[in-house]
TrEMBL record:
This is DUF3019 domain-containing protein. The keyword Signal applies. Residues 1-26 form the signal peptide. Keywords: Signal. It comes from Alkalisalibacterium limincola.
């Protein structure tokens, strides 16, 4: 468990880990990856201004063991294409590099709030996209968050009927 000072270093995954039941702690600010490889000698894929989109369907994600109909604010993540958010954080992707056919190195800037306090954490995560509707996200300390897409119509209220169209474009 992190105290407040540690939480500043590991905020992104504390919130996501708690939400998804992984017990994950978060990551500290880091330097850009050294020697990040690319698949089969190709140049890494980088989007405009270094903010590419991961090849995932946009929408609500939950841990694989959570039934979509039993999702809650604590267990939901909203993948927006260039960002992902949980109940207490919003992580914007600053740079996305494809380092293998199914793996991406992501530099994130996460706005985190906890107990009336808010701060920003710059971090690096490795995303393994297992399908267009599921992923594994791991920080440098080895904490992992796994999630799969839930169709919005399968979620409980209030998420079932929320208009999130503006957040997904």
């Amino acid at each position: 468990m992190c105290d407040f000072q540690q939480l500043k270093k590991c905020a992104a995954f504390v919130v996501l880990g708690a939400a998804l039941g992984t017990g994950a702690s978060a990551i500290a600010s880091i330097d850009p990856p050294r020697g990040a490889g690319s698949p089969e000698g190709q140049a890494p894929r980088v989007g405009q201004n270094g903010a590419a989109h991961l090849p995932l369907k946009r929408g609500f994600y939950v841990h694989p063991e959570v039934a979509c109909g039993e999702a809650s604010a604590a267990s939901l993540l909203l993948f927006r294409g260039a960002a992902i958010s949980g109940s207490r954080d919003l992580c914007s992707f600053q740079q996305v590099l494809q380092i293998a056919s199914d793996t991406w190195q992501v530099h994130e800037s996460c706005e985190v709030s906890e107990g009336g306090r808010a701060w920003v954490v710059d971090s690096q995560s490795t995303w393994r996209i297992t399908s267009p509707t599921s992923f594994e996200r791991t920080n440098e300390e080895g904490w992992e968050v796994r999630a799969r897409l839930c169709e919005q119509s399968s979620l409980p209220e209030p998420w079932k009927d929320n208009d999130i169209g503006d957040l997904l474009h």
